[in-house]
Amino acid sequence: MRLLVHVCCGPCAIFPVKYLRENEFKITGYFYNPNIHPYKEFKQRLTTLKTYAAQTALPLIINNSYPLEEFLLKAIAAVKSRCSVCYELRLRETAIVAKTQEFEGFTTSLLVSPYQKHELIQETGERIAK
Known about the structure:
Distance between the termini: 18 Å
Strand content: 5-15%
């Protein structure tokens, strides 16, 4: 199965890439993270991901856009549910790329982090996939 994996940085990609490859998924990483601030951190995460991808032969699709202002306006408008805004934004873009490039599915490395809201990520991804 061809799977597009949204990744926020190199370290967060390590476990999902290993696990998915061991389970015979053909994966491509997708970098899209307009929520990362400051810009220096955004660039550092991208650089680290590129290094990891080169070391592991992980194909990458990189969205270099940095619409931080758009993200912040949406997050401020939904201050009590800003996590859902962030997940929605990143997973929707991932799903669009997955569909247009004929991947069979998509997921995110955010599901590996103990600091994320896993049920909300899953619900958001499933809703977008429909």
